Amino acid sequence: MYDVIVVGARCAGSPLAMLLARQGHRVLVVDRSTFPSDTISTHFIQQAGLSRLKSWGLLDRLIATGVPPIRRMNFAYTGIELSGFADPIDGLTEVYAPRRTVLDAILVDGAREAGAEVIEGFAVEELIHDDNGRVTGVRGKVVGEEQQKEFRSRFVVGADGRNSTVAELVKADFYDVVPAACFVYYSYFSGIEWEFHHQTDFNHQQIGAWPTHDGQMLCAVMRRKDRFREFRANAEENFHAIYDEIVPELGQDLRDNGKRDEQLRPMLYPDNYRRRSNGPGWALVGDAGYHKDPFTGLGITDALKYTEVLADKLHQGLAGERPIDDAVAEYVAHRDEDSRGSYALTTSISELELTPFFDSVFRATSRSEHFKSRFFTMLGGGIHGDEFFAPDQLEKLYDEVDFPADKRLLSPS
């Protein structure tokens, strides 16, 4: 009998298991994958996420793998240029974009070392319920075997991503759904050495590039979904053409010196959503319960942040300090409130055009070194979006740079 069974062992599941096991709870983690293994990802971890890894004793392990630090970012939104970096957050002056083959293996190892039991290559097929409908365990099979196995627990958490089996089995409904606007193609290139770039032009297309492991750059392009079929017909040439159009010097360098080391990978992301993430004996964490467009690169960081909150609430319940379902409900409320601003920002700018509000804010920010620093610190998690976009702060920004003429643009609505 386990205290908690976690379904999914990547950047939400393994940290949850590790934190609970460190507090003396008996935890089982299962995942249909084996590790190390890859998964579609932005790879990007903001300072707020790195701060969690640091506090858990895992950041030094990640750095030791040779992942290169990123200490400058170059953003461009339809002619608005923002370059710089965040102020130090928890002493961190850089960010990283590790390969998931590396990051996820570190997290799985961390869970095991904390005392959690990990079963790789195990696919959950059913949830077990008691007579009152409370979830009390899982049934499933080791991949390739016929015999089903059963595990019981006091609580089950689905950390199994966008296509969560747990979420489907508990029939977790969606809310706050915003249709996805774009598709992404990306791959890994050697032979080029660039800074971080994230640039959008006036034709609803975007490039992103940042360094990752093994001397490679992750290079990506994004376009509106209605152009996917056209793009896919000649993906290689269209990929390069977008770089040529947005930043010609990068496009030329990519053609002349870049060597694509892996296949081009398409990402047709699902809609942005939240799902009902708690119920009798169960919860959802990470993309299983909350997903937004990769445009802002917050997925891994949010998974680490809200996993920490869920671990604390589960511990309160398992330790008998309060009813566990009540505690977990607070985790969901905190997640939804804390992520409200970043969700709205992401779903807006991932349309690859700026509303008058965001155009004014970003254009004014580009003219102020102080507010550029605050902008990057917001992205890094050092200040909340509500603070950056607060009307009194925007008034100070607009007065400092004498822009825009219409000072009424102090809120998105």
From TrEMBL:
**Which top EC class applies here?**
oxidoreductase
Q: Which domain of life does the protein's organism represent?
A: Bacteria
Extract the Pfam families matched here: FAD_binding_3 (PF01494)
What is the protein named? NAD(P)/FAD-dependent oxidoreductase
Annotated coiled-coil segments of the chain: none
Q: What keywords sit in the KW lines?
A: Oxidoreductase
- Taxonomic path: Bacteria, Bacillati, Actinomycetota, Actinomycetes, Pseudonocardiales
Q: Which Gene3D superfamilies match?
A: FAD/NAD(P)-binding domain
Q: What SUPFAM superfamilies does the database record attribute to this sequence?
A: FAD/NAD(P)-binding domain (SSF51905)
InterPro entries hit by this protein: FAD-bd, FAD/NAD-bd_sf, Geranylgeranyl_reductase
Record-annotated FAD-binding domain positions: 2-323
Which PANTHER family does the UniProt entry name for this protein? CONDITIONED MEDIUM FACTOR RECEPTOR 1, GERANYLGERANYL DIPHOSPHATE REDUCTASE
GO MF: oxidoreductase activity
Q: What is its EC number?
A: 1.-.-.-
